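Progress note, project year one: complex with PRP.
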Amino acid sequence: MPLTVLDHALAAHILTRLRDHATPPEAYRPLTRALTQILVTEATRNLPVRPISVRTPLEETEGVALDTQIVAVPVLRAGLGMLDAVLELLPGATVGYVGMARDEATAIATAYYCKLPPMEARTAILLDPMLATGGSAAWAVNQLYEAGAASVIQLCVVAAPEGVARLEESFPRLQIVTAALDRELNDHKYILPGLGDFGDRLYGT
Ligand code: PRP
Ligand code: URA
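Model obtained:
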């Protein structure tokens, strides 16, 4: 399974601000959008393209157009903070929604919503900023493949080794692009050093 960890000065700067316990929700939201733009740029590096001609103000030249239909799928709630950035860069994408919530005591995720557009032969970009145990992502990725997605790319802000290993074992073709691969999970299945509960920080819960 290809795992890409961003190696980028601006991404590292933004991530540090997201980790900072003092960063308030009103700053969290634009920082999340900015970091997601970098994640999308990296994730789309090798998407298929087809050659097209274009007329500049001076002459005809050759260019390319993306040659795959993209479906962006935020995992509610926290993944919603990444959606606008994806749609700004990929305005032709359609959007599906997956609702998952971790039980606070057991950290086991349960699905409460799933609404997907046509997925057959599409490239799915799953938006879930935190990959901790991998329970939420595993359920969501499975839905996308079951619905016929040709490929799935997961964008994360922070991933834990435990979650990456779980997805690697279950989905050998899945591509993960993350801004950081952190050390471990604590006893409550929070990522260390992490940034806390992403949804709570984004929405001021
Ligand atoms: C968080 C996060 C991921 C999930 C990751 O969501 O946004 O979806 O935890 O944990 P996992 O890898 O152990 O499944 P949460 O359940 O807290 O819901 P929220 O987005 O509504 O805050
Ligand atoms: N979900 C979060 O938002 N943060 C973590 O550290 C783990 C799961």
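Residues 25-43 form the longest helix (19 residues).
The chain has a mean pLDDT of 97.
No further modelling is planned for this target in the current period.
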